[in-house]
């Protein structure tokens, strides 16, 4: 059995602003089977935290808990300063409007076309004019480079395109935090790189905080070692700009507990047997 | 096959009843708060109401026709064939119109709601809707409940009318009775209590059909197989509940209106 390896907070993290997401001793069980056991971590403003773990480790559960889609059995969750665990469903709808979520299988509304999927949140708010909605849909779709799909239905899109539309839907309201649930799961390497580049672009252009659940360690390493250059419109390795700091941390779950929470350097220096095996 | 203990079985059923009651209650309260989804209500009214019109027309017409055929035979034995219009009228308006329309709409729409919402649940579309700050109870459930209650009311009236038309067609074309006598007796026998009973039932049945369909859809689990199971359970439960509740509503209203 490996020991927990939770290093001191990464020096890359900005400390001034209050944390965006705080989990404090959060536990949850499904059908009497514990999934998370006293999980505690913080997501700082502007930080991207990649969450790893084997299937069933509770990675997606963390995102659903942060959104208030499910309630923990015990512990406290604060998102954007609000106590999610104590909030009624109707109050949560207000809070969720400030959070973007990209689901594992995109979860696009299959009866709506791309335009209506991306515009869904704006149309529901009812305060934005149709012209503004159209402009912002184009802006979001141009961010993911899918403007030509605006009239198509989700069933007419490839898996990668669906993920990109899901990202466009998540960012259209410029949320303060975005939760990505396996955004590259089941995609080929080229499409995965495109998705990762979009996530890096969102991180570096908008400074959005995010939680990223993924099975693919290489995606997180790419994110930790690359930055998005607005001038060229591409992602470049960090070694080209060594002064630049990437606010990216890694969190590894095992048997419902956090066994690692730190930055890429701390991860590479970690001597824990299980973690070494996991990242090898 | 895994056996379930009677205690666990009872607990599951009580929890299901509790969850259904919460959903039904929330569906009603959702109708009164903002935002209101009138466009969704109209879309559902179109799907449920106009979409069900052909089967309701056919069911009503042929139920009235066959009721006339069967009743004529019995009434003729007692020399009371002139009462045929009364019998068909009371039977259709009080009982057969609302119940058969309810069963038809349950078969068509309760299953449709369960499969549509169930598919949205298993593909995380409902979670996505909640994540986007929209209440699925207001956006999906409440419009379906309002539309079903509203449209079933009018579908039952159409069914009643078509039942009488079917009866009239058989009475005049096959039995050689005077259609004026048929319509006159059919009209005169109807009292306020009969019409009230016939118009209250579709409201109750509409609520049952929509809430049961939405409940099974929203609680679907286990992928596409789970959606299929939810669809079947929705139709069976809604149909049985319609027949069960029909008995108690009829008994209750008969007691109120002083039927012997």
Q: What does this entry look like structurally?
A:
The complex is a heterodimer of chains A (280) and B (260). Chain A has helices at 59-67, 89-96, 114-125, 130-143, 159-171, 189-206, 217-225, 264-269, 273-279; strands at 21-30, 33-43, 48-52, 74-79, 82-83, 99-102, 177-181, 209-213, 226-229, 234-237, 248-254, 257-263. Chain A is of the alpha/beta class. Chain A has a domain at 102-174. A six-stranded mixed beta sheet of chain A has the order 6-7-8-3-11-12, with helices on both faces. Chain A has a four-stranded antiparallel beta sheet with strand order 2-1-4-5, with helices on one face. A two-stranded antiparallel ribbon of chain A has the order 9-10. In chain A, α3 (114-125) runs parallel beside α5 (159-171). The longest helix of chain A is centred in the last third of the chain and has 18 residues, at 189-206. The model of chain A has no long low-confidence stretch (mean pLDDT 86). By secondary structure, chain B is mostly helical. Helix content of chain B is 85%, strand content 0%. Chain B is built from eight helices and no strands. The longest helix of chain B has 40 residues, at 38-77. The A-B interface holds A 64, 67, 69, 89-90, 92-94, 96-97, 99, 101, 103-105, 107-110, 120-121, 124, 126, 169 and B 35, 123-125, 127-135.
């Amino acid at each position: 059995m490996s020991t927990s390896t939770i290093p001191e907070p990464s020096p890359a993290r900005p400390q001034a602003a209050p944390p965006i997401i705080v989990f404090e001793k959060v536990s949850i069980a499904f059908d009497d089977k514990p999934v998370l056991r006293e999980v505690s971590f913080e997501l700082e403003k502007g930080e991207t935290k990649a969450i790893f773990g084997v299937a069933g480790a509770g990675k997606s559960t963390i995102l659903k808990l942060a959104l208030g889609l499910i309630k923990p059995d015990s512990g406290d969750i604060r998102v954007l300063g609000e106590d999610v665990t104590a909030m009624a469903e109707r109050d949560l709808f207000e809070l969720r409007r400030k959070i973007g979520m990209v689901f594992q299988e995109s979860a696009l509304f299959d009866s709506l076309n791309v335009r209506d999927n991306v515009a869904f949140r704006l149309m529901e708010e009812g305060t934005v004019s149709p012209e503004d909605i159209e402009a912002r849909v184009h802006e979001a779709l141009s961010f993911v480079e899918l403007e030509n799909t605006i009239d198509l239905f989700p069933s007419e899109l490839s898996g990668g395109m669906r993920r990109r539309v899901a990202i466009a839907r998540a960012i259209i309201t410029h949320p303060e935090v975005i939760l990505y649930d396996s955004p590259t799961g089941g995609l080929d390497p080229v499409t995965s790189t495109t998705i990762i580049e979009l996530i890096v672009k969102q991180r570096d252009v908008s400074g959005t905080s995010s939680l990223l659940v993924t099975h693919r360690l290489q995606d997180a390493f790419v994110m930790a070692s690359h930055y998005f250059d607005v001038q060229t419109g591409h992602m470049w390795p960090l070694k080209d700009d060594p002064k630049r700091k990437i606010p990216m941390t890694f969190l590894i779950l095992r048997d419902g507990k956090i066994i690692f929470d730190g930055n890429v350097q701390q991860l590479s220096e970690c001597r824990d047997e299980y973690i070494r095996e996991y990242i090898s | 096959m895994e056996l379930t203990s009677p205690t666990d079985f009872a607990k599951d059923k009580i929890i299901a009843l509790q969850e259904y009651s919460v959903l039904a209650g929330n569906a009603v309260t959702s109708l009164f708060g903002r935002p209101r989804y009138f466009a969704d209500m109209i879309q559902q009214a179109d799907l449920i109401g106009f979409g069900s019109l052909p089967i309701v027309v056919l069911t009503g017409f042929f139920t009235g026709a066959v009721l006339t055929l069967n009743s004529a035979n019995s009434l003729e034995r007692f020399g009371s064939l002139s009462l045929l219009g009364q019998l068909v009228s009371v039977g259709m308006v009080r009982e057969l119109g609302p119940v058969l329309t309810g069963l038809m709409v349950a078969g068509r729409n309760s299953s449709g709601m369960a499969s549509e919402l169930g598919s949205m649940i298993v593909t995380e579309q409902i979670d996505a809707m909640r994540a986007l700050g929209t209440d699925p109870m207001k956006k999906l459930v409440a419009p379906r409940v309002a539309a079903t209650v509203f449209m079933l009311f009018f579908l039952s009236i159409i069914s009643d009318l078509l039942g009488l038309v079917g009866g009239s067609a058989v009475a005049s074309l096959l039995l050689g009775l005077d259609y004026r006598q048929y319509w006159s007796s059919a009209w005169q026998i109807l009292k306020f209590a009969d019409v009230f009973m016939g118009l209250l039932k579709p409201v109750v049945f509409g609520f049952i059909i929509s809430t049961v369909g939405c409940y099974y859809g929203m609680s679907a689990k286990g992928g596409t197989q789970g959606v299929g199971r939810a669809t079947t359970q929705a139709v069976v439960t809604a149909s049985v509940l319609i027949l069960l509740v029909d008995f108690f509503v009829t008994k209750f209203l008969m007691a109120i209106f002083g039927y012997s």
